[in-house]
Design goal:
Elements lengths: L3 E5 L6 E5 L7 E3 L2 H7 L3 E6 L4 E4 L2 E5 L4 E6 L5 E6 L7 E3 L14 E3 L19 H7 L8
Parallel strand pairs: 3-10
Antiparallel strand pairs: 1-2, 2-5, 3-4, 4-9, 6-7, 7-8, 8-9
């Protein structure tokens, strides 16, 4: 838990700051809306609205009667889901935007019965470490 947690989108046009204490453990959602938005598995961590600052070009989409989803207007990186019905207008932020998220453990998982087989992370499938993958793909710039 840092004083200010800093994150950014893929292109760097959007910068997000989270001030003060927060629970950095992400939750996972396997609902169909989240699957459609994320491509498979939605991960997020919660932050109070007053703790979050956002700079840069953001597009908001009212994805349901109670929530908006936001993305960078330049590169399309997913930024957050946020309740808009007035009950809890905090942010569900995408952990991949934040370097610190590399060490965060999973907090919870919902809609487990709807999980796509590919994101259950079970089975005998091909795996490669970062070094193995980058050795076979020299066009990767190392910032992946």
């Amino acid at each position: 838990m840092r004083d200010v947690l800093e994150g950014r989108c893929l292109c760097g046009a959007v910068k997000i700051g989270v001030k003060g204490a927060h629970d950095p453990r992400p939750g996972a959602c396997h609902c169909r809306m989240c699957q459609r938005w994320s491509g498979g598995l939605f991960l997020c961590f919660e932050a109070a609205a007053e703790a979050v600052s956002v700079e840069g070009p953001v597009t908001r989409y009212q994805s349901s009667a109670f929530a908006e989803r936001a993305f960078c207007s330049t590169c399309g990186s997913h930024l957050w889901m946020r309740d808009t019905d007035g009950e809890d207008e905090g942010y569900d932020l995408m952990p991949g935007l934040f370097e610190a998220a590399l060490s965060w453990p999973l907090r919870s998982e919902i809609y487990t019965d709807r999980a796509m087989a590919a994101v259950r992370l079970e089975g005998d499938h091909k795996r490669a470490t970062r070094d193995e993958y980058e050795a076979q793909n020299p066009f990767i710039d190392g910032d992946v």
